[in-house]
Every structure is written in structure tokens, then in C-alpha cells.
């Protein structure tokens, strides 16, 4: 059926948690705000993130072996605006945040609610987004890095799609 208005009623009720996905490959780093992601297997644990083919993070992720996925707290809207409202084609987003190199060269953001690095198992075409199915290999969060973070960083309620709806995508429009 082609009744997209009907599907909008369903999709409009969803308010998923937002995350920042980072990729590193060939000497390049990239990251973007992602609203499409989910655990997709229990045993073994698998997670999928959907990246828009229009942004730089997708281009870097195509060549990467691992991706890092970071959950944000609602109070971290500035971080969401940086990774969602700016394009890595013009701005070095990593110059504005604390980050470190993780497993497999992944770019892991400090001061986030929780994060994991996942080995890319599969890439799945989903229309204008590609799903990257990940096998988690390293993880952590604000609590384990508190000695270096400001107290309470990233520990509030999660940032959701509704909280980030006003952020205009930083990647060029098609």
C-alpha cells in the first residue's frame, strides 16, 4: 500500500532514543546523530544502526571495520546539535569534544551516557539508509570514566527523537 499518511500515524507515535554513531577509516573520522537503531538479536547480542547515504559518516563507515554507538542524555542537546546539525565535510566535530581511540581504531566520545564499539558484521540496504549490523566488542559509559568527566555528565534521561526534532540535518540535501 502507498498510503504514507496512514503509516505516519504509526511512526509519529514512536520516540526512539537518539545516538551518535562514529566511524574511522583510511585516516578519516566522522560522526552523525542517528534516530534509527535497535538491538536486533538477543543471543548473540547484535545491534543495528541505520546511516543515511547522504552523509559523510556513511561514506567513512563503508570502509570501516567497527563503529562506535553513543547514547546521549537529554541535557546533551549541544552534542546532538554538533553531530546532527553540522556536516563533517565542513566542520571537524571531534575538535569540539573529548574523545579517545577505542577498539579497532573507533572514535569513542567521552562524557556520554553509555557507548559501545561494534564490529560490522553486515551492511543491509534499507532504502535511503543502510543498516550496519554490529557485534559489540567493547563498551562503557559516563560512570566508568567519571574520574575524567564532570560529575553527572550524561546521566540524565535519554535524548529522544522528540527532543532533537528541531535540529536541521547538517548534511547537504539531495
**Oligomer category:** single chain
Q: N- to C-terminal separation?
A: 25 Å
Please state the CA-atom Rg, rounded to the nearest Å. Answer: 16 Å
Mean pLDDT: 86
CATH superfamily: Electron Transport, Fmn-binding Protein, Chain A
Can you characterise this structure?
The chain has 174 residues and is an alpha+beta fold. The protein has one domain: Roll (Pnp Oxidase, Chain A), CATH 2.30.110.10. It has 4 helices and 9 strands. A 7-stranded antiparallel sheet has the order 2-1-5-8-9-4-3. A hairpin with a 5-residue loop joins β6 and β7. The longest helix is centred in the N-terminal third of the chain and has 9 residues. The radius of gyration is 16 Å and the shape is globular. It starts with a helix and ends in a 10-residue tail after the last helix. About 4% of the residues have low confidence. Keywords: Oxidoreductase. Pfam families: Flavin_Reduct. GO terms for molecular function: FMN binding; riboflavin reductase (NADPH) activity. It comes from Streptomyces cyaneogriseus subsp. noncyanogenus. InterPro entries: Flavin_Rdtase-like_dom, NADH-dep_flavin_reductase, Split_barrel_FMN-bd.
Amino acid at each position: 500500500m502507498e498510503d504514507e499518511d496512514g503509516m505516519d500515524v504509526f511512526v509519529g507515535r514512536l520516540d526512539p532514543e537518539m545516538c551518535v554513531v562514529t566511524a574511522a577509516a583510511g585516516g578519516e573520522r566522522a560522526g552523525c546523530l542517528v534516530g534509527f537503531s535497535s538491538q536486533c538479536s538477543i543471543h548473540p547480542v547484535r545491534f543495528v544502526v541505520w546511516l543515511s547515504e547522504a552523509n559523510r559518516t556513511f561514506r567513512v563507515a563503508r570502509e570501516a571495520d567497527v563503529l562506535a554507538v553513543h547514547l546521549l542524555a537529554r541535557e546533551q542537546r549541544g552534542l546532538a546539535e554538533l553531530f546532527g546539525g553540522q556536516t563533517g565535510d565542513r566542520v571537524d566535530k571531534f575538535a569540539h569534544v573529548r574523545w579517545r581511540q577505542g577498539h579497532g581504531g573507533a572514535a569513542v566520545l567521552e562524557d556520554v551516557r553509555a557507548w559501545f564499539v561494534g564490529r560490522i558484521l553486515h551492511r543491509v540496504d534499507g532504502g535511503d539508509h543502510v543498516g550496519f549490523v554490529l557485534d559489540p566488542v567493547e563498551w562503557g559509559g559516563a560512570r566508568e570514566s567519571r574520574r575524567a568527566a564532570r560529575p553527572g555528565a550524561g546521566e540524565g534521561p535519554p535524548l529522544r527523537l522528540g527532543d532533537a526534532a528541531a535540529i536541521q540535518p547538517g548534511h547537504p540535501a539531495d
